[in-house]
## 1
Amino acid sequence: MPLLVVIPLAGAFLVPVFGLLDVEWACHTLGVVVMAASLLLASHLLGNTGVNVTWVGGYAGEIDPESLTGVAMVSDGLSRLMLLIINGIGLTAVLYSISYMQRYTQVELYYSPLLFMVAGMNAIVLSGDLFNIYVFLEVAAIASYALVGFGVQSEELEASFKYLVLSAIASGFILLGVAMVYKETGTLNLAQIAGVVREAGLSRTLWLALGFFMGGFGLKAAMVPFHAWLPDAHPSAPAPISAMLSGVLIKASGVYVLARLAFNVFAAQAATGALLMGMGAVSMLVGVLLAVQQWDFKRLLAYHSISQMGYVVLALGVGLSALAGGRQTIGHIAVFAGLFHMLNHAVFKSLLFLCSGSAVYATGYRDLKRTRGVGRQMPFTGFCTRIACLSISGVPPFNGFFSKLLITIVTVWAGHWVLGGITVIVSFLTLLSFNKVQDYMLEGEPAGEHSHISESPLPMLTAMGILAFMCFATGLLVPLYRETVLGPASEILVDGINYSSIIMGG
Amino acid sequence: MHAYMPYVLAIALFAVGLYAVAVKKNLIKIIIGVIIMHHATNLFLVLVGYRAPEAGEAMAPVAPSAAQGAGVEFAARSVDPLPQAMVLTSIVIGVSLVALMVVMALRLHEKYGTFDLEDIRDLRG
Amino acid sequence: MRGMTLIVKTTISFLIGFITLFGAYIVLTGHLAPGGGFAGGVILAAGLLLVVLAFGADAVRERLGHRLAVVWESVGAIGFLGVAVLGFAAGTFFAHFMPRATGFRLLSGGSIPFSNLAIAVKVAAGLFGAFLMLAAFREAGRREE
């Protein structure tokens, strides 16, 4: 299990050496090999059921069996789901980068932070220790700052700086929260903190820490009102990085930790549920309203990321408040819906960003008005774009339809009529904005300057094709993997505070 | 209240840093604000680990010579070393963050010729 | 970047030995006293910086250049990962694979001194590389004037 962190780290450390030797193809191959190895490991871990705990250094109960001083790496259902997402999308992004990054120099400076980011995210979802989460959160975040400012155009630097400062503030809040939790509970182990909360309830300090965590991780997950960095940062990065950022980072570092803290550590409280629902609903609305008026394709996609993350957080919030109220079935389904939508969003949002990158690769423009009719010249890209647009709008039989439907159903069933109505409205507006995308990019006559462009190179097409296939598969084949992947993930969250007893007992 | 004064100081420092980041327009001042915030958080973390001694002075977690009593009593009496280890890691993270920010600011200065945030406003909407 | 006066050069070439010794001391006693890999690495990096500042970047570019920083940084990092993976040999990940002698002696502390060493190498090389890059900025800026 720790190999999942070590292998990308080793890759990240080796890449600059290859770069020094000026062997560019070695960097590419190293990237692909490392990501493939991670994905293999992640799928191998799927075979385990239940919760597996590894104590780093074998420190469990050495000095004093009661205190359990040691850093734990925990792999449970939710971690395995996140690992699949991280490494799977990572592999497609790396495949795509093989040809996309030909336009940029200094490729080793790209692969190294990318592998650092993947290693960091793998460690975040595998860690059972609060400070470990913070450290690897920073690792992944710093790597992403470097990647956002990669091509040094002026607007990319400005975006990267804004993202940097805002994210640093969030990290400061998170660290303050960690300090407060440590003061109250005397431990950093997630399971032990949960144990303290289970016995003594939440004191005022813990509430304050929870508030800080909501703010800090809400910023990482791009919730309104902390969303301001996303529309600048995500479009400015190179396309595969945008895919990784939007498809994976805001999930692994934002939503995952929020869910873990809200469900497992701080015991499902009605207040956190209400807060999550509120943030989710507002994010959905604000994201899609601001997205409809965008002409820049990648900026539009970034705003939609905010909106879709709002969906996920809303579903998790509904589940949380249902669990706090004691309604287990609704809670279970809501959590399942939220995680399902997270998986789907990773797939189709990454596909969308990769398609936009394909358009940029061919034409050099991101503006929808300038890339008219690109879909006619590049049929495969156009096909994938259409699939992705239909998925995110929630059209059957693609994956977006199932998860959005489930979220709407469970929201209404839990009694939140207004929120259910909001989900439907937002879905409609999403359809509207992606109609615009399809109109401009795929239909229409290509302008004269675009008459010479042809289809993108094969690695890019392969990556896009894989994701397009996944859009179908994750939707239609849900019964197949529901038991192995999504079920255990939602059960772990629903189990809530009982999770700690599994860790301490084992 | 008297016992909480150090914590109040750390939070006040954090607020100062937050003010600098939110209000100031100069890039360098924003960077300094982030640094102050980070230092305030580290200070808070160190303060959390203090264990007031029953008798005598507070004992720092420095390993004395082997003669001077080791083992469980040392672990129980000395100031808690775990926050200090956390702060060490946090300082490292802060250093790399600041290095990255400074490089970004330098490059921004190259492109725009100014450090003023008002002028660096290409992205909108 | 030009170097400094003869007085500075002589002083630095005398002091660099002590600075390196001090840094090594901080690194090696990291498990006994405050310090450890990061702090010792910073001191070593500061020593290297002093050499570059005193003698001028042009004079030392061959031996203390960018290439050195990158290579040693990777070496340090791989060394740290190696210590971690070698822990597998003693059981779980990152376990101590050196015997733990009586407490509070120099050779106690399991595999921590090794990781301290690797970290020190990486930090020194990394900070030095970062400084070189910042210095290159300033040089580029000065050439434009």
Note: Residues 91-104 of chain C have pLDDT under 50 and may be disordered.
## 2
Amino acid sequence: MAPALALLAVFYAGALVGALRVSFLPLGGNIGDASPAAWQALFSDPAFVDALVFTLRITAVSTVLAAVGGVLLALALRGRGTGIRVIGALPVPVPHLIVATSAVLWLAPGGLADRLLGALPLDLIRDSGGIGVIAVYVYKEAPFIALLILATMQSLRDREEAAMVFGAGGLQRAAWVLWPAIRTPLVLGSVIVAAFAIGAFEVPLTVGPNYPPTLATYAFESTQGDVIAGEGRAAAALLVSGVLATALAAVAVRLARSVEGG
Amino acid sequence: MAEPLRQRLTQAVLVGLFVVPLAVIALQAVADSWRAPSLLPQQLGWRGFEVAFGTGGAASAIVNSLAVALLTTAICLLVGWPAARALGGRLLPRNGLIALLIALPLLMPTYLAGFGLTEWFIRLGIDGTLAGLVLAHVVLALPYAILILLSGFNRTVDELEEMASTTGAGPLRRLLWVTLPSMRPALGAAALLSFLVSWSQYGSSLAVGAGRSTLPIVMLPFVRSDPQVGAAFAVLFVVPALIALTFAARSQRSPL
């Protein structure tokens, strides 16, 4: 117990403190030189505001679509054989970069979807709306959420039959038997998906637009420009994304609890 | 709709959605020429892999990635086991709080984790080393390992161990013959996830790695600039993940 907790606590806190330190103090600087300059620069940078809005929009849309898709997929896979369930879970172990590679191949202008359909009605890859990024996240995370839900669905058959015996219709069964059972894994899965999308990095780098960046790619681009001031601004932007992810998780868990409580 | 027909339809949709798009990557990897509007490549060849292993530096990246992922997996299992055991046995007064502490790193954006750790790793002189990469990956993978192992330590395992000790089995025999075999499915799943988290890691590796290449790091630029080489990398990238998946699936068949 102790070594695991110590390791996690030291490195988790270490990462946060390290980022905080860089955001207030240039690398190798003395503690007396600490200043909020990087934070001031961050909040007055219009590109940061754009990145924040873009990140939140991608996160919200991908999470909602992945949750809806995950529930639908779980319903389709429910009670099916092992083979078909494996196919339904295929994207889960596949790294994001591979899904992004496939997205470029299929969805880019002149890609396979374009060739099959004649022409796609809108740009899907490197588009300013981030549709490509959202597509990759939904493709990868909907099966993940479906897996979490399926694990709890296995035990529902008896309860649903009981409800049917008492004359409950399809909608009633969905509201009283299915929904209470899948709510917790659905919320937990969505929180993980949202946290991942807030930290989005390699997916927007490959299929995202050049502008706006996400918070993580904004941070990366900052370090590529002005080395010293850029590092501080990058650290501050990343801390904002970390706080957002944690706050979102706290709100979601609290909401799920209060619904459960009454 | 008749039931078998519906079933077949679901199957077809799923294959079309999840198998075909990913499988076509393998075709693209060996398509030296595949210009629009053709639906099939005009010319097959090994240019993708030649560039990947040539200027792409795939060989050393694969070795680095494998070493880091295997070490990360081993450490996660070794460190995660006693933690899950203690949490599962409810030996601790404030389990909820500890579980929350364990889950917190899951919410940390990976680039933030790597970025913050780099600050320390530079002072320790381990930035850009294998050890630095492994440490950063362990922080991100260990929570998964603990949470999965935790689900394995249940009443049945406790009861089996008790039975073993009443029949006179010592601690070592109990571990080898009872605990490890009955924990095999959980161990397999925990190992798989630890491996995959490390293997697919981009953000933290970019920050901590300081130029030491892992597979995702060397692959990314090609996905944008040269899709055939990107696809060749994707093939190299997915094979170990699938092998790990097969091993984990095998361990799910519990012997007890």
Note: Chain B touches chain A through 76 residues (CB under 8 Å).
